[in-house]
């Protein structure tokens, strides 16, 4: 982390977990554990939990995000939710381009870009996910894949709008598998993504952009991962569903 130029941010991605009562209980358990955090704290929850989470976190240092949004403002898109709908509810952040959306629901680099644009236009902040498949890492094209995904996703995004973008590097092979990129691997790819931003915009923008690592970060490996200069936080899956584990990662990011 380099807190001199950018904020460290820990964001929880709850995925498809927790009913509203369960969400309320988990947030109430989290609040006292993370109240003194010296980093940004975000929880991204299922649509049904958004109003519960916003109410439960009111007056705290925990921000609330959604897990996706559609690119259209409205229309015949059954079961989808627009960025304007999220903004109206009180959401501040939205995850876009998560590997599970790409893998299971047909997201492409182009639709990711459209969703990023829609979110920014609605006044939301974006957690943009990029990352390579296992066979792509084995072929030695990790940097090329992450560079391409980053460039396409940020098409039409201005330098000024980059202040509302967090990038999460998620090696797809490390999500929900228990496998984790080594601290050096995470730092290398996060650094390469920062290099892409410098080329797209300038070095100052690159140095100001928070780049998280997402991929089985947990209470045990957080210190080592967050000790790397280009790893500015984490997008946390399973560990974000356990308040003590999430708090331990936040404590590591607060050092």
TrEMBL record:
EC number of the protein: 5.3.1.1
GO cellular component: cytosol
Places the protein is found: Cytoplasm
Keyword Isomerase recorded: yes
Active site: 98, 170
Pathway listed: Carbohydrate biosynthesis; gluconeogenesis; Carbohydrate degradation; glycolysis; D-glyceraldehyde 3-phosphate from glycerone phosphate: step 1/1
Function: Involved in the gluconeogenesis. Catalyzes stereospecifically the conversion of dihydroxyacetone phosphate (DHAP) to D-glyceraldehyde-3-phosphate (G3P).
Protein family according to the UniProt entry: Belongs to the triosephosphate isomerase family.
Protein name listed in UniProt: Triosephosphate isomerase
Gene name of the encoded protein: tpiA
């Amino acid at each position: 982390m380099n807190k001199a130029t950018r904020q460290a941010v820990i964001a929880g991605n709850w995925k498809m977990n927790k009913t509203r009562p369960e969400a309320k209980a988990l947030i109430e358990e989290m609040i006292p554990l993370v109240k003194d955090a010296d980093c940004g704290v975000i929880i991204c929850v299922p649509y049904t939990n958004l109003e519960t989470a916003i109410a439960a976190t009111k007056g705290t240092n925990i921000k609330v995000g959604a897990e996706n949004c559609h690119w259209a403002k409205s229309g015949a898109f059954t079961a989808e939710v627009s960025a304007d709908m999220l903004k109206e509810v009180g959401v501040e952040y939205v995850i876009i381009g998560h590997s599970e959306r790409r893998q299971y629901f047909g997201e492409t680099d182009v639709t990711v870009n459209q969703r990023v644009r829609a979110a920014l236009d609605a006044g939301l902040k974006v957690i943009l996910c990029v990352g390579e498949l296992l066979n792509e890492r084995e072929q030695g094209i990790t940097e090329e894949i992450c560079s391409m995904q980053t460039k396409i996703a940020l098409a039409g995004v201005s330098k000024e709008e980059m202040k509302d973008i967090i990038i999460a590097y998620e090696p797809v092979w490390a999500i929900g598998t228990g496998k984790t990129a080594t601290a050096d691997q995470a730092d290398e790819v996060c650094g390469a993504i920062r290099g892409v931003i410098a080329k797209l915009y300038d070095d100052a923008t690159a140095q100001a952009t928070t780049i998280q690592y997402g991929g089985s970060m947990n209470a045990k490996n957080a210190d080592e991962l967050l000790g790397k200069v280009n790893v500015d936080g984490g997008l946390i899956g399973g560990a974000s569903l356990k308040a003590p584990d999430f708090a331990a990662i936040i404590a590591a990011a607060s050092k």
